[in-house]
Design brief:
7-stranded mixed β-sheet, 11 helices, globular
């Protein structure tokens, strides 16, 4: 958190609205075990959910170690989600530069650097997360290739056309999509790829359901309708090449999380929204044209 006048002035440049300041306060204070304990499994700290079927054997065996088995399996599923996101970035080489927009504690950025060998920059409006992630980069010996910045993803200050790839992983519900995709269109080189994984409400069911509204309230976010993603992309020279509905693949993660000590109480709204069809978990990959 900023303490000096210089730091407060810097924060005011990054956090442009009262809403952004409230979101930053939320994530600066966040020490949720569902993020911390899962990250402690192997040192990769994620801030997103998982996909894929879980191994039912984790629910069997000694009761004393059952909770830790579930935590390790949840972490496997969230890391699998990040792998799928990276699969959709296309042909990335060591000389390319990537942007993790809303980078959290840095897990996917480190995975991208390890896979592609390229430079990765992460931006977040949470100074605590940026500090944590940069410490992780130092510990991993990759601070020359993976760097995290206290910046606003709506106005990163990075060079125009400097990125081969950009991703957002469950962060777009905090911002205006037209403004966000305008910035990404500026940053991407021609033919560059943007990959988004997000929860969005279903236009067909007509507005936010009660369950989706509970998710909004829990995370201090504003979940967008599915249609808004495609409308905002089209307006900003981003053309989808892949759209994958991950809804069915994420339900097992939430069903397993309900059985764990790190459950937060938001599991039931997620499962209700997914199963009633009012909420979708989508991956969208789009090229800059």
């Amino acid at each position: 958190m900023p303490t000096t006048q210089t730091e407060m002035a810097a924060a005011d440049r990054v956090l442009r609205t009262e809403y952004q300041k409230s979101v930053a306060r939320y994530w600066n204070a966040e020490k949720d075990p569902v993020n911390i304990r899962l990250g402690e499994v192997d040192g990769l700290y994620h801030h997103h959910y998982g996909i894929g079927d879980y191994d039912p054997s984790v629910l069997e065996g000694p009761e004393a170690t059952r909770d830790q088995r579930i935590i390790e399996e949840l972490h496997r599923l969230e890391t699998a989600q990040a792998e799928v996101l990276l699969d959709h970035l296309g042909d990335i080489g060591p000389g390319d530069r990537l942007l993790d927009a809303g980078s959290g504690r840095g897990g996917t950025s480190f995975m991208a650097n390890q896979r592609f060998g390229c430079q990765v920059d992460g931006v977040s409006i949470s100074e605590q997360q940026v500090s944590f992630a940069n410490s992780q980069a130092e510990e991993r010996g990759v601070s020359d290739r993976v760097k995290f910045h206290f910046r606003n993803m709506l106005d990163t200050g990075l060079e125009t056309g400097s990125r081969r790839g950009i991703w957002t992983n469950e962060t777009t519900m905090y911002v205006d999509l037209s403004e966000l995709f305008g910035e990404f269109s500026r940053l991407l080189e021609y033919g560059g790829r943007y990959v988004c994984i997000t929860g969005c409400y279903n236009d067909v069911t007509g507005g936010r359901s009660k369950a989706v509204s509970r998710i909004d309230e829990h995370y201090t976010c504003n979940i967008h309708p599915r249609s808004e993603y495609f409308r905002a992309m089209a307006a900003n020279s981003l053309v989808p090449i892949n759209v994958v509905d991950l809804t069915a693949q994420t339900i097992p993660y939430w069903e397993l999380r309900e059985k764990c000590s790190v459950a937060t109480g938001i599991e039931d709204p997620f499962l209700t929204a997914y199963k009633e069809g009012s909420f979708h978990y989508l991956l969208i990959a789009a090229d800059r044209v």
